[in-house]
Design goal:
Radius of gyration: 21 Å
Order of helices and strands: HEEHEHEEEHHHHHH
Strand content: 5-15%
Length: about 270
C-alpha cells in the first residue's frame, strides 16, 4: 500500500472511530482527545496564567464572578443529570477567576477553568450580563470544544502530510502551490467556520444554561448590542473566528423563548 493511501486510511479510521456525542445537541462530534489527555495540560496552563496575572480577590466583582460561575456550573450538571449523562462532569475542576486586565475578554479552558478580565465588566454591567458571558464560556467547556479543536487541527496536519506525500514526485513549484492553497483553503474553508460553529453552539447552549440558572435569556441580546457598540468595526465574518455581533443578536433573540421553555422543565419560570 502506498504511503499516501495508508495515511488516508488511517485518517478515515480516526474519523469513524473518534466521534463523541454532544449531550446538548445530540450530534456526533469529532473528538479523539480524552479528558485524561487534555485536562492536566489545561489545568497546568491555567495555573501558569494565574501566576503571571493579577488575580482580583475578595471584591464585589470577584465574588459575583464566583457566584455566577457556580450557578451556571450547577445548571449544567442539572441538565446533564436529567438527560442521562450522570458523571459527565466528574473530571471537571471548576474555577472562576477575575483578572485585572483592560482587555474586553473572557475565556474558558477544558475541564472548567474560566477567566474574566476586568475590562469586560463595564459591558456586562450587571449580574445577568456576567451570566450571559459565563454561560457561553461554561458551554465551551462542557461541549468539549477544546478537544474538538485539537482533533480537527491534528486532522488538518494529517491532510497536509497526505498531500505532500501524494505530490512527492512532482516539481518543487507544484508542491509549493499545493502547500499555499491547502493552508489557505483549510484555514478559511474549514478551521474558521469550525471556530464560528463552536461560538454559535456555545451561544445556544449558554442561553439554556443561564435560563436554568435563573437568569433571563431574553436579556442576552442586550449584552451583544453593548459589545457591538464598544467594539467598533470588526473583520468580515468569514475571516473571523466568531460570528458577527448582528448574527449573534438575531440568533439569541430567536433562541430565548426555547431556552425559557427548557428552563421550565426544571421548575424555573421566574428570572433575574
Amino acid at each position: 500500500m502506498k504511503a499516501s493511501r495508508l495515511i488516508t486510511v488511517v485518517g478515515l479510521l480516526l474519523l469513524v472511530a473518534a466521534c463523541k456525542t454532544n449531550p446538548f445537541t445530540g450530534e456526533r462530534n469529532l473528538n479523539f482527545v480524552s479528558n485524561s489527555q487534555i485536562f492536566p495540560a489545561s489545568f497546568q496552563q491555567y495555573d501558569e496564567v494565574l501566576s503571571q496575572s493579577k488575580v482580583v480577590r475578595n471584591t464585589t466583582e470577584a465574588r459575583s464572578i464566583q457566584n455566577v460561575g457556580q450557578r451556571i456550573a450547577t445548571a449544567a450538571k442539572r441538565f446533564l443529570d436529567a438527560n442521562g449523562y450522570q458523571g459527565y462532569l466528574e473530571d471537571y475542576q471548576w474555577e472562576f477567576a477575575l483578572l485585572e486586565d483592560e482587555s474586553v475578554n473572557a475565556w474558558a479552558m477544558p475541564g472548567g477553568k474560566i477567566a474574566f478580565y476586568t475590562g469586560i465588566l463595564p459591558i456586562a454591567q450587571d449580574e445577568t450580563g456576567i451570566a450571559t458571558i459565563m454561560a457561553h464560556e461554561v458551554a465551551h467547556a462542557v461541549a468539549d470544544h477544546g478537544a474538538q479543536r485539537m482533533s480537527a487541527q491534528q486532522l488538518q496536519q494529517l491532510g497536509a502530510v497526505v498531500g505532500g506525500v501524494a505530490l512527492s514526485g512532482s516539481s518543487e513549484q507544484t508542491q509549493q502551490i499545493f502547500a499555499q492553497a491547502y493552508g489557505l483553503g483549510s484555514q478559511y474553508g474549514v478551521m474558521l467556520p469550525f471556530s464560528r460553529s463552536h461560538e454559535t453552539e456555545a451561544d445556544r447552549i449558554g442561553l439554556t444554561l443561564m435560563a436554568i440558572a435563573g437568569y433571563d435569556p431574553a436579556k442576552a441580546p442586550d449584552l451583544w448590542r453593548r459589545m457591538k457598540a464598544a467594539g467598533g468595526e470588526g473583520p468580515p465574518e468569514f475571516l473571523s473566528t466568531h460570528p458577527s455581533p448582528d448574527t449573534r443578536i438575531r440568533n439569541l433573540e430567536q433562541w430565548a423563548p426555547e431556552a425559557k421553555r427548557e428552563a421550565a422543565k426544571y421548575g424555573v419560570t421566574d428570572f433575574r
